[in-house]
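Ticket #4471: structure export looks truncated?
Reporter: QA, pipeline team
Priority: medium

Steps to reproduce: submit the single chain below to the structure queue and open the exported record.
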Amino acid sequence: MNILIVTPTYNEIENIKRLIPSLLSLSNEINVLVVDDNSPDGTGNYVEELSKTNERVFVLKRPGKMGLGTAYEDGFAWALKHPKNFDYIIQMDADFSHNPEKIPEFIEMLNSSYDVVVGSRYLNGVSVVNWPIKRLMLSYFANWYARTFSGLKIRDCTGGFKGFKRAVLEKIPFHLIRSDGYAFQIEVNYFCQKLGFKMVEVPIIFIDRHSGTSKLSRRIVYEALFRVIVLFLDRIFNLKKV
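Actual output as written to the record:
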């Protein structure tokens, strides 16, 4: 069993120095890929040096900030081409807002009958720490909106802590996914469901390290509003053949 953790970074050197050992200590089957967008603080260079002495650590260096969605797409493409032939691919943030200790539970679910595991902030009420009420209400509404119009059956449609069996990423039509903000997560979930993969949510506690500040731009919000309408039309008229 080969497992790959994919985590995008931009100026995360202090976090990545802690995160990589934390992940590797969970299991000898776990590998880590850092997708770095040319961090000025040297995150990518640090991981590159570490990879020279640790065969379970990898880095994919990109020329600059290119967006979270493309970071995951590039990381997934790298994973599918790698000779280690990874069985499971897990995506997560590098800043410890996603707790590494939940990963064994993800693996346990993937070892059973599930194809996709979603770390859910809304499975048991609301499990978010350090968000202002305005940000929390926006997220809660966005998930209601996504579920209502896309037909998704999961509670947390926009979360970024997820695990996939290899076959899922091999079949998702990434060429049809146009969004880069949190709508990217909605689109990936939509195609997982449309393709008939078995999905399960596990409860997580999301802790935002940027207390009291929103990382959302209007562009990201408008992008999500528009892309969900596109998914709604596809749901009704089956426009996107997969």
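Status: closed, not a bug. The export was complete when the record was re-opened. Leaving a note from the reviewer for reference: DSSP finds eight helices and nine strands in the chain.
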